[in-house]
DNA sequence: GGAGTATTCTAAGATTCCTTAGAATCCTAG
DNA sequence: CTAGGATTCTAAGGAATCTTAGAATACTCC
C-alpha cells in the first residue's frame, strides 16, 4: 500500500467516495432522500434484495450519510441531514455535466421528452393555466409536494383524466430525477390530446432548485 | 449482482464515486488542482510511486476528472475543468462537516493552530499591517498566488526573516488544505516573536472561497 | 538511425468489496 | 413468557480493485 504523510486524511475523505462508489448505495440514497422509510419499504422501492439493502445501509451509516431511528420492531432510515441531500444533488449535477454516458443512460430510460426546469415551473406556478400533477403514490405526496400540485398516481390517471381541464398546460412529476413514471404519464396525456410535460429532476430537483422562490 | 431498472444510470453515477474512492486518487487530484504537472512531478509531489500514479491517472481520465496534454516525451495532467475543481472543494467541505474522524486526522497532522479563513484574509488584504507569505516552491507561486503575497519558501524562511517587518501580522499559506508546510512556518515565526497565522484551506481554499472579493 | 528518457500497457498476486445464506437479536402482541 | 416478525450479525464464495514488475511504445536529442 502506498503511503504518504497525508494518507490518514485522504483515507477519511475516501470514505465518502467509497460510500458513493456503488450503484446500489446511490440508488438507496436517492430513494431515502425523498422521505424516511423502513428497510423493507426501501428495499421494495429501490428494487434491491432486502439483505443487500440492510448491508449497504450499514455502510452508509458508517459514513454518516444516513441515520436510523428505531420505532418498535422497525428501523426507519433517512438521509442524515440537509447537507447530505444538497451534496447528493451536487453530485448528480456534476456527473450529468461531465459524463456523456450518464446522459445517454438517462435518455435510454426516460426517452428524450423536453422537460420543464424547476425554475421555469416556479415562475409559472401563479399562472392558473398551468396544472401541476404529482404522479407519485399518495404517501409520497403527503410527505411533501410542489405547492398547488394535485395528487394523481399514474395507476389512476387513465380513469381520472376528466379531472384535468382540456386546455390546461400540464406539468407532471414523480420522485427522483431518474424516475420514469412521469414520462409515462406525459406520454399518456399526450395521446389524449393534452399539452403535458415532465418536470426535470422530479420532486428532488424541485427541492434543490437554485435560489429564489 | 442486484439489478433494478435504473441500474445503468446509477452505474454511471457510481463512476464518479469510484474515482473518489481511493486515498491515492484524491491526493493526486488535490495536487493537480493546484497546477498542471507531469506524471513524474506529480508522483513526486504526492508521494506516490510512479507506476501507481500512472495507473490511477488512467482511471481519473476514464472518469473525465483529469485531462492530459502531451508535450514531447512528457504528458502534462491537470484537473479537467473548473467544475471538477469546485466539486472537489465541495467534497472536502462536506466531508469536513460530516466526519469527525476527518477533523481528527487533520488535527493530528497540522496541529490545532488557529487559522485565518479565506474570507477574513480577503477583508484584510487592504490593511498594510497584514503581510501575506506564500511558503510554496517558487514554481507554484509563479503559477498563481494571493494578490500582494510575497514568495518565501519554507527552506529559505529562516535566513530571510529580516525581510518581514517585526510588527506585521503575518498570514502564511501553502498549497492544499492538508499541507503542513505553512503550519511549520507559523511555528517557526512564532518562535521568533512574530504574530503569524495560517490560512485555512491553503491556496486551494483561497481560490474556492465563498463569493465576494 | 540509435541511445536515452518518459509514460503506458500487460499481467498477476494480494487485498478489498459485494452478495447472500443462516443464525442471532430485539421488538410487539397475545 | 412465548410466538412471530423485522432487522442485523457472521461468514464465505465470487468479483472487482490495488499495486507493481516487466515489456512495449513514443518521443527527443545527437
From TrEMBL, chains A, B:
Stretches that traverse the bilayer: none
Record keyword Coiled coil present: no
A Pfam family assignment: HTH_20
InterPro entries in UniProt: ArsR-like_HTH (IPR011991), HTH_ArsR_DNA-bd_dom (IPR001845), HTH_MetalResp_TranReg (IPR051081), Rhodanese-like_dom (IPR001763), Rhodanese-like_dom_sf (IPR036873), Thiosulphate_STrfase_CS (IPR001307), WH-like_DNA-bd_sf (IPR036388), WH_DNA-bd_sf (IPR036390)
GO molecular function term, any single one: DNA-binding transcription factor activity
Keywords associated with the record: DNA-binding, Transcription, Transcription regulation
Protein name: Metalloregulator ArsR/SmtB family transcription factor
